Amino acid sequence: RKIIIINGPNLNLLGRREPEIYGYQTFEQYFEILKDKFSETVDLEYFQSNHEGALIDKIHEVGFYYDGIVLNAGAYTHTSIAIADAMAGVKTPVVEVHISNVHARESFRHHSYISKHSKGIIIGFGLRGYDFAVQTFL
Ligand code: DQA
């Protein structure tokens, strides 16, 4: 099974960015653990970009033949009709992930444009949310 984790803006700073909210681990460290954990069953890839268009290009690129997309669109979750449209336009199911519990935070984080096009949503479980999301595709 081919599964890709796509992280949006500012998630390249995980481990350094507001660690009291997002934790002290870098995503690169966590990704290695995850890749190992699922290595028997999953061909796991990782892509990160701070650019909306690059995220859309990646969704198009993988969205007709990968088995699953795990997407944390960061702040674009709350703003991007374009990413929502990209998800609506492809075949591969998407699981939406948020590291923090967005519903316990500012009200502008309560609405997601992308949830409507997600197979399911995992919110507030830290980096483990990515692990849970991958499992939903097994
Ligand atoms: C986030 C929540 C978003 O509101 C925020 O803009 C992020 C990260 C999360 O994983 O908790 O960048 O998606």
Could you explain the architecture of this structure?
- With 138 residues, the chain is of the alpha/beta class.
- It has one domain: Dehydroquinase, class II (Rossmann fold).
- It has five helices and five strands; from the N terminus they run E-H-H-E-H-E-H-E-E-H.
- Strands 2-1-3-4-5 form a five-stranded parallel β-sheet, with helices on both faces.
- Strand 3, helix 4 and strand 4 form a beta-alpha-beta unit.
- Helix 3 runs parallel beside helix 4.
- It starts with a strand and ends with a helix.
- The structure holds 1,3,4-trihydroxy-5-OXO-cyclohexanecarboxylic acid (DQA).
- The site of 1,3,4-trihydroxy-5-OXO-cyclohexanecarboxylic acid (DQA) has 10 residues, from loops.
